[in-house]
Each structure stands twice: as C-alpha cells, then as structure tokens.
Specification:
Blueprint lengths: L3 H18 L13 H16 L9 H16 L14 E2 L11 E2 L2 H16 L5 H17 L11 H16 L3 H21 L9 H15 L3 H20 L1 E2 L2 E2 L18 H7 L23 H8 L5 E11 L2 E11 L4 E5 L13 E4 L10 E5 L20 E5 L2 E6 L3 H5 L4 E6 L2 E4 L3 E6 L2 E7 L4 E7 L2 E7 L3 E9 H6 L5 H9 L4 E3 L5 E5 L6 E8 L2 E6 L2 E2 L8
Helix pairs in contact: 1-2, 1-10, 2-3, 2-4, 3-5, 4-5, 4-6, 4-8, 6-7, 6-8, 7-9, 8-9, 9-11
Length: 553
C-alpha cells in the first residue's frame, strides 16, 4: 500500500511546526529572501491548524491567526495597478522593505496557480477578510494575464503558463483562454513524447512541471483535460522513476541549487511518491509537496522501488542551444546500492550550474553527501570549495555500467596558471595512496585511479571531502562495487578491496595526447578513451566504437 497520505501529512506538520517557531521580522513576514517561502510556510501552518486528526505542537487558534496574517501580508504585496506592466505580479526579493520591493516575473508563475488551489481547498476555513484577499489576488492575476503567451520552447516557464491557462480559463469562464490551455497541453505532451524532456536534470524546474500540472489536474472539471493531464503526469513520473534511486537524482544535473550538490536535498516529492527513505530534517524546497500528489504508474513505481537487477537507461533528448536544436544523449546505470552516469555531450546551461556526470548513493541523513564526481571549475565556481558546481567545458567522458572514465585536456594557458581538477568524495572511510583513492561509503566501495604525476590535496567540507588535483595532463577512472558484490568475490573489507583494485591499474598516456584504457574488475570489459583535439574523443568498449544506436526518447 502506498501511504502517500501519511507522508504528505508528515510534511505539512513538520513545516507548520517550523513556521510556528520562526521569528517574524518587523514586516510581519518570516522571509525576505524569497516571497514564496512565506506563502508556502503559512499555507502549511494554516492547514495544520485545521487538521483535527493530529494534535499540533502549538495552539490551533494562534497558529491559524498567525498563518492568516502572513498570508494576508503576502497577498497584499502584489501589484494591483491595472495600468502597470507588472500588474498581477509579486516582488521576489523583499529587502530592505517588502512594500517598496519591485515586482518580479517569477513568483506568480507557480505561486499563482497554487494560490488558486489553496483558496479552493481551504476557503471554508478562512476568515472573511483573508477569503476576500484571495479572491482579489486571483482576479488581479487573471486580469494581469502573465500566462497569455504562446507555446514556443516548451520549458518550465511555459509548462506553468499552460497549467495557469487551464486553471484561470476555467475559473473565470474564459473559453478562449481555456481552449488555448487545452491546445498548449496537447502540444506539450506531443513534444515531450517526440523529443524527450530537455529539462529533466534541472532542479527545481522538473518539480515545477509536476506541481503545475498536478495542481491543474486537482482543479480540472472537463474529462478531456483530466485525461491529458493524467497522461502528461504519467510521462513525467515514468521518466523520474527510470532515474530514481532512494531519493537520489541519478545522472547528469544540467542545473541545481547549492543544496542539490553534492547532496540530494530537494526530495520532498520523491518522499511522498516513493517513501523508501527517511524524511530529512532540513527541507530547503517545501513548495506544495504536502498538498499536491499524482500517483506514478504502477510499472514506474515498481521499477523505482525494486531494483534487484541493474539497469542501463539510455535516453535521447532534444535541446535548443543558441537557437539550434541539438540531439543529446543521457546515460545512467542504476543498481540497488548505487548509480552512475551522465550526459555524453557538453552544452551551455543556465547559470552554468551543471554537473555533467556523477556516482549517486541513496539519500543520506545528517547532511552527508551522496554524490561523487570530478570536474574542472568554470564560470561561476566558488574557489572556497563550499559550492562544488559550475564546471568548464574541458572534460571528455566514457560511461559504461559501474565505471566512468574522464579526461581533462586543459588548454596550455590553464595548465601554466596552475588550474585544478576538483572532486567530491562522500563522507565515509577512505584510503589515500599516491595515484589512487579507495573508499567505503555505506554499501559501496569506490576505486579512483589518477593519472601518473597527479598531485592532490584533501580538504574537509561539510558532509564530504574535497579533492583538489594538479598536473600537466589529468585523467581518471572510477569504478564502484557494491559491498555485496565484493563479498561474493571474497573481499570483506576496504583494505582488501584496495589491494585487489591496485591490480586493476589503468593504462594512462599523458604525453603527446591524453588517453586512458581500463579493464573493469566486475565486468571485465575493456574501456578506452582518447582525446583527439577540438573537443572530440575516441571511445571504445571491448574494441568497438561507442554508438548511440540503443538510445531513444
């Protein structure tokens, strides 16, 4: 039985109790960094105050009064000047004074639809003043019409526009808007099936897709609209399930916030859907995970929750890059204990927040990292090492099951200036040798082989070790092996694993080119990766060139 109701209620109670304990600022709000957080936390506090099945850790009447005050203050921050170009919008950052903050295009995109949902669900419990504030805010959102835009690139913005067209078109009896929403919904579903989801690895954008369309489904009245929304959400959750490992976001991350690397922390929707990991104390993105739910198809849930056999996931997706539609290829190898993979191609991404490949472990509690990866720092990188994102284009890769090979053919200028390759090692037991590192993290052993002449330093970070590598030509091979698999092969401890893997030393070439050849311990497959210049490489598995023939949308 999928007890998602219990998990949703747990999120509501936890966030509500956090909200109750938070000190109000002089503005009467908790947060000035993002107006939406005030709306989310107040929503949960209000809902928990009305929940008669569970006794909250605060006075119900006082909790409800506080929630109503915060909600009212948030609603009154919208631009209500019908002549303003930002009519129906809210400010995003509220410093230094919320009342003086300028409206921003982002908050209403998702929050506007969620406001409609919240009003619809809880109107009977609101005081008259708050109910009127909601009705007025929804009227201004509709009149402002932020969603009156054509479907062009089918990204997360347009997904939210489409959902809002359906919601507000139905609510205000606007047949033309509703029909536009229906057509946008049909076109979105067609495009998703034909070209894949270019934004899959984007956090929090993927969750904005699911929240927006789940919200629209909760409010939809017409059978055709409900059916198409069911189909679209099934597509999204089936995709999520194929890359899922106990809360982890497996494979390439085309973008993510600092709390998404090197630990998966945006996990509440996964927690509600799958429930195979513990709810973390820290919840950096609450949004509406405690209110909105669409159950994934049974086959998708079974795939996500029963990974007794390893699976290779090969996906094609089309992405618009500088106005040109490019075909990209995503690879993941998912087992019961770990996953590996990433994106074969390098493309420019929003804010360059990407991580092109990684090994993932199930979500870990206590702030411990569950990701392992290496990259050359690029635009936006924080030299302090506390934010291990933002890679450069200088990397070539080969993915094959439980092994990743990576080359870092840095330009001469970068080498001369002493630039570094940075890696993340999840907190665990590690052995450090001159040209290799061996680790035991939860139920997985890792062997990391570094090219000759690579010097490295280890620096402690919160929940992980940062490794900083230097050398003229850096290449590496990483192999992950479950403890269960190692024990079946007679290996019972990390020291024994290190001795075994020291005999699996790759063959590196760093003079006159950069290449690595490696034979996997568990697969016995021979892997070869060579830099050929101008961002191209030769990739071979057991003597055959790697191809993308098995990849599909």
């Amino acid at each position: 039985m999928n007890d998602y109701h219990g998990r949703m209620n747990r999120i509501v109670r936890n966030v509500a109790e956090q909200a109750w304990r938070l000190p109000l600022q002089s503005s009467g709000l908790w947060f000035h960094g993002d107006v939406r957080d005030n709306f989310y936390y107040a929503s949960y506090l209000f809902a928990a105050s009305l929940d008669l099945e569970h006794d909250p850790q605060f006075n119900r009447q006082e909790g409800k009064r506080l929630a109503e005050e915060v909600l009212g203050r948030v609603l009154r921050l919208s631009d209500r000047d019908a002549k303003s170009p930002m009519y129906g919008h809210w400010p995003l950052n509220l410093e230094p004074k919320p009342e003086a903050a300028s409206p921003h295009v982002l908050p209403v995109e998702l929050m506007g639809s969620l406001m409609f949902f919240f009003h619809h669900k809880f109107e009977s419990g609101m005081n008259e003043g708050l109910a009127r504030e909601f009705e007025a805010a929804l009227e201004h959102i509709y009149r402002g019409g932020f969603f009156r835009k054509p479907l062009t690139v089918c990204n997360h913005h347009e997904a939210k526009y489409t959902a809002a067209k359906l919601i507000f078109g139905q609510r205000f009896g606007d047949k033309e808007l509703l029909e536009d929403g229906k057509q946008s919904l049909r076109d979105t579903l067609t495009l998703l099936r034909r070209e894949g989801m270019a934004e899959y690895g984007c956090l929090p954008w993927f969750w904005h897709w699911t929240q927006a369309f789940t919200c629209a489904l909760e409010l939809a009245e017409e059978p055709e609209v409900k059916q198409k929304l069911h189909e679209l959400l099934d597509e999204l959750w089936s995709l999520r399930a194929s890359y899922y490992l106990k809360g982890a976001w497996v494979g390439a991350h085309s973008r993510g916030w600092p709390h998404d690397a090197p630990r998966d922390a945006n996990v509440l929707h996964d927690y509600v859907q799958f429930g195979d990991f513990s709810l973390p104390e820290e919840m950096p993105r609450t949004e509406y995970a405690g209110f909105l739910f669409h159950e994934a198809p049974e086959a998708a849930r079974h795939l996500a929750l029963h990974r007794s056999e390893p699976a290779e996931v090969r996906k094609v997706l089309m992405k618009s890059v500088d106005g040109e539609l490019r075909k990209l290829h995503s690879y993941a190898y998912v087992t019961e204990d770990f996953a590996a993979g990433g994106l074969w191609e390098r493309v420019r991404e929003f804010d360059n927040e990407q991580l092109r490949w990684m090994f993932s472990l199930p979500v870990r509690l206590g702030g411990k990292a569950n990701q392992l990866y290496f990259f050359h720092p690029g635009e936006g990188y924080d030299p302090s090492g506390s934010d291990p994102r933002h890679q450069s284009e200088w990397m070539e890769v080969l993915y094959h099951k439980n092994v990743v090979l990576a080359l870092y053919p840095l330009p001469e200028l970068a080498v001369a200036s002493g630039e570094e390759i940075v890696g993340v090692l999840p907190e665990g037991e590690w052995l450090y040798e001159a040209e290799a590192l061996y680790g035991k993290v939860d139920e997985v052993y890792f062997a990391i082989h570094l090219s000759p002449g690579t010097a490295y330093d280890i620096r402690a970070q919160s929940g992980y070790q940062q490794i900083v590598c230097r050398g003229d030509g850096i290449a590496l091979a990483v192999e992950a092996v479950s403890i269960r698999e190692a024990e079946n092969r007679g290996i019972g401890q990390l020291a024994a694993f290190a001795r075994q893997m020291s005999g699996q030393r790759p063959e590196f070439k760093t003079d006159g080119g950069l290449e690595v050849a490696y034979t996997g311990w568990t697969t016995e497959d021979r892997l070869f990766l060579k830099h050929r210049g101008s961002g191209s490489s030769a990739r071979m598995i057991n003597g055959a060139e790697c191809t993308f023939e098995p990849y599909s949308v």
